[in-house]
Amino acid sequence: MPLEGSYAIWNNRGGSGKTTLTYHLAIKFALKNPDKTILLIDMCPQTDLSHALLGDDEHKQDHVSQIGTMKKDAMVFGEQKFAKTVSGYLDLYSSQGLPNNVDPRTFLLNVSKFNAQLPRNLYLLCGDASIELIARSLEQKRNQTASVSQFGAQAWKSITTSLKQFIAKIAAHKGIKLVVFTDVHSSCSIISEIALAACDKLLLPITDEHMHRNGFEYMFALLYGFSQPSSVYYYYRHFSFYYRAKEHDVRLPKIHLILKKSNRNATNKDNQKEWEFIFEVYKKHPQAFNVAKELELKTLDEFKREFVIDISEETSANQIVRQAVRSHSPLLTVKKNANSNNNNNRNSSSNLADVSTPSTNSSLSKTKNPKIVRSASPSPNNRNASLPNVNAHCINKSTDALNESSSLIKQDCLSLNSNNLLNDELSVYTQNEHINAILYDELLDKIASSLLNRT
Known about the structure:
By secondary structure, this protein is of the alpha/beta class. The protein has helices spanning 18-32, 48-54, 63-68, 86-96, 111-114, 131-142, 155-160, 162-171, 190-197, 213-223, 231-235, 241-247, 272-284, 300-307, 313-316, 319-326, 350-356, 390-396, 399-413, 431-451, and strands at 3-9, 37-43, 75-77, 80-82, 109-110, 122-125, 178-184, 201-207, 254-262, 308-312, 334-335, 371-372.
């Protein structure tokens, strides 16, 4: 199966850390799986993910705005120009469909060509601030009648699945093992609906502040129609995304993981009623969750072990984790062999690279894969593996152990821009921040390991 997984990272409320999580998780997954092609899709009008990946050029001009305004790398189709962005693709699709003579790979950017710190098997469908303007046009075209629309009676389905068709056409190329991560805007606009319809699985980041029953009722009502907080939702259901998706046979993503970010004062009893509500939804509608048919989860604890990963706020909001995003860097270092060069992940799909990037020197293909240096703690091998408690590590470690962990980060665990954080500049961060950066990497490893374990 060429498409090995497509994941939407979404929450219908902002502030849950979607973009930071998407950035680090995709890089982690790319480093762990050099034989796979990792595609990132930025569906947020803020384009924060694209900025984090591409950075600025040598003149301190950001690549994203230049690509979005077609000052560089414009795609020419006939007499028209389209930006190599998600807006450019949607503009082309909504006006002409996806022509057979247009390879969607030409819209993609090989991230390593802009940012040598990142793996070669990482590709981006760049975000674009104009996507909200495109959305108005898409909504109008999606609701056109069969006599007017170029898509006939399938206008709603065709435009809603436009991104899914984009992904499928890329995955159909021989030799590509494609895994997709989509950063979805927190609104429930047509752009978010197109993004959600393109993915098979949903990663749902939440925070303690978001943990209230009304919030989950609203989310389940919007996406699946399971819970109706008031009669208004039922009365206007014909306009809802879930209703029209079912009407037009559009598949919606299944919940794969709930990533819960907790503060240091949180206890197991906090938000118990909300978790019980979610578990009741699961028992009534297990088809909305990505769970093996033979697996029966009878208790809330079993449900949490299967679907919930706790993320300490001290870990995810760590200054080193944030600075890695600002410096366009991965969180791990790549230690190369003596005869290796900067072209890591040589096994990334050549089919994809042939279209979207210039050909590389044939001698580069003979280099050995880089070694990924891991933190001292062993990586969990399955989604149920437990992680050490962050607070316990920060409080109970001896001074020697803290210094050892700090030294280990400086030497091995962070591959940050040499102009920003390497070596001595790491000393400005506390020892607890060093430890939490390691723990965050271990947590990313746990999430990445869980993604392909269950189809």
